[in-house]
Amino acid sequence: MKARAKDLALAGEKYLGRSYQEMDCQAFVEQCLRNVGISLNLAGSNAWYRKMTWVGSPEECRQKFGSVPIGAFLFILASDGKEPAKYREDGIGNASHIGIRTGRGDGAIHSSQTRGCVAESVFRDKTIRGGWNRVGLWDELDYGEMVNGILGEKCDGGGVPGCDIGDGSFCPSPDGQYTKKTVPGVPPDPARRCGTEYF
Fold it and tell me: Comparing 15-19, 27-31, 112-116, 155-159, which segment has the lowest mean pLDDT?
């Protein structure tokens, strides 16, 4: 049985006020996951972003799933070239921060370096310029029957992981990585059979 995403959001609330020095954004998310029975240690918010089953903007998430589910992962994604070297070639960008959609108050909870502690911040299910601009859903969490059903669907375009699924979001490849963006006029990677750009 999967852990409930709502319980992940509730787990975060008990860390409000915890010092950023004790728990940065990745450590905060991983501690919340441990609280709901999932133990996983990845190397930063960029690794978490690339681990998601589905990613898209808040608006794309609302369109596809009807809402941004409680317990969804929130990211700040930029094309600033500051992602770790091992991710620079995948064309995805720098997921510099991670938090959790709460469904109460201002809408997000995260460990904030700026505020120096675990805090709530404004989200309200929409892209915030310079702030939360991507939503990630992970099939290891239970978001409820409707979201789980949609999340479990195969990617269209032949069901090939890594391909754009037509709504601005995309599915990961089997190794958890994403197919690189293609360049118009250059044939796609035959191993992926996908020639679609993601963004």
Answer: 155-159
Decide: 45 and 52 in contact? Cβ < 8 Å. Answer: no
Host domain of residue 178: 155-199
Whether residue 168 is found in the same domain as residue 146: no
Dihedral angle of Cα 15, 21, 24, 29, to the nearest 10 degrees: -30
Task: Tell me which residue has tokens 């509730």.
Answer: 10
Q: Are residues 141 and 178 in the same domain?
A: no
Q: How many domains does the structure of the chain reveal?
A: 2
The model's pTM: 0.78
pLDDT digits (tens, 9 = 90+) for 51-97: 999 999 999 999 999 989 999 999 999 989 999 999 988 889 999 99
- Which alpha helices (DSSP H) does 42-169 contain, by range? 45-51, 58-65, 145-151
Residue type, 84: P
Q: Which residue, among 156, 167, 154, 165, has the nearest Cα to 63 in the 3D structure?
A: 167
**Size of the chain in residues:** 199
First to last CA, the chain: 34
